[in-house]
Amino acid sequence: MELVFYGHSCFKLVSESGKKILIDPWISNPVAPKSVDMGPYDYILITHAHGDHLGDVLKLARTSVTEVVAIHEVQQFLLKNGVPKVTGMNIGGTYKLGELVFTMVPAFHSSSFPDGSYGGDACGFVITLEDGTAIYHAGDTGLFYDMKLIGELYGPKIAILPIGDHYVMGPREAAKACELLSPEVVIPMHYGTFPILTGTVEEFKKALSEFGVKVEVVELKPGESYKK
Ligand code: NI
Ligand code: MN
User: Fold this and answer.
1) What is the reported pTM?
2) Residues of the chain with pLDDT under 50
């Protein structure tokens, strides 16, 4: 398994069997590495309709080689905009693709398309890989107590959490999220892309030790990857 950070909320995930997944496909974000994999991807997952998460999906999902997975309203938008293969789902649902499993979980955030129209609800994903390892990508979210249920039901070993503050959780909220989720590894995201996303990994680590939460913090710079 390999997770590559492309900056902001964008991650490439390669599963044990070699399936390529891109989460929140804003590969042209201001902090993206020079070299990014332009695909084709097997799957692109989208957490919500905001531009910094829809990202470059219209460019990346032009053929039916790539299946996009998103909430119903985002699915309808993408189909109308010429993306050939889009699977819509909704919060609480699980989509099984052989041994690869996508579960759509809640996120506490708004969602609208670039023109301002309603984008459905924002969500997160739990991706369960062939060997049973679960990875939770929270999308954009505030802290909510039901993260405890996500931890209990799906047992994510790896949590990818926003820490940038202002639009999403800040470092203290994200540290509490780790207490609720109990992952082995946490990878911070959605910070430092713009000046307003002020949360830092240092503050996050400080909050974790303040709350007495034991978790391995893996800080990835854009372009770096985590392998297991
Ligand atoms: Ni957002
Ligand atoms: Mn965002």
Assistant:
1) 0.98
2) none
